[in-house]
Amino acid sequence: MEIEPTSSHTVTVSSSKETGGFGRALGRLLAPGDVVGLCGDLGAGKTTLTRAIARGAGVPAAVPVNSPTFTILNLYDGRQLRICHLDLYRLSDGRDLEGIGLQDLLDERTALVVEWFDLFSDAFDSDHLRIQIERTSDQGRHFHLHATGESSCELLEELRKGSAPVE
Ligand SMILES: Nc1ncnc2c1ncn2[C@@H]1O[C@H](COP(=O)(O)OP(=O)(O)OP(=O)(O)O)[C@@H](O)[C@H]1O
Ligand SMILES: [Mg+2]
Q1: Which residue's CA is the closest to the ligand 1 atom numbered 26?
Q2: Domain parsing of the chain, residue ranges
Q3: 3-state DSSP: the chain helix, strand, coil percent, rounded to 5?
Q4: How far is the CA of 46 from the centre of ligand 1 (A)?
Q5: Residue identifier of the C-alpha nearest atom 23 of ligand 1
Q6: Which ligand is nearest to the CA of 134?
């Protein structure tokens, strides 16, 4: 039996601005096929982080990045990468994910960012970067990163290498 590698790391920020820096750094590193799963309470900062990830991937500032509340998913075109932004909060049945053709969406130019990932995490590739957002104060957040697979471990390694200043 092959054992998939795992890797963990925690990033601490003290403002939305710093969340922006962290998210943009992650967005710059994303590649097609990557899956980023965001977890954390209401208002933890999942959408704020997603927006920064999209900016880092080259989605222009003029393009609004908000929770896809009524549509389940939004697509944003970045430099070379397309970001597929899912929010599972209102999804009542994981089988609905099959209906939206998740596998077809994940083509050779698309990465996934999923809010409320834990609700239906089984529907996604086991190789993913999970980010648990912990609110430490009004503006403070811990981002607990956990990579479970070869490509997400590489992504996390790259992020750690460049993670000294978060701008
Ligand atoms: N360090 C921080 N990082 C992210 N957001 C922060 C931070 N400090 C304060 N905030 C504020 O917290 C709120 C986070 O809202 P956001 O919509 O991103 O949360 P969410 O996790 O997506 O919520 P929901 O569960 O409703 O989808 C925003 O108003 C944001 O300005
Ligand atoms: Mg949200």
Answers
A1: 42
A2: 6-161
A3: 30, 25, 40
A4: 6
A5: 43
A6: 1
**Does the structural domain 6-161 have CATH classification 3.40.50.300?**
yes
Write out pLDDT tens, residues 44-86: 999 999 999 999 999 999 999 998 767 788 999 999 999 999 9
Walk across the sheet containing 73-77 and list its strands. 6-13, 141-148, 129-135, 35-39, 110-115, 82-87, 73-77
Model confidence over 143-157: pLDDT tens digits? 999 999 999 999 999
Closest atom, ligand 1, to C-alpha of 38: 21
How far is ligand 2, taken at its centre, from the CA of residue 134, in Å? 14
For 28, 74, 155, the CA distances from 81, given in Å and listed in that order, are: 10, 14, 15
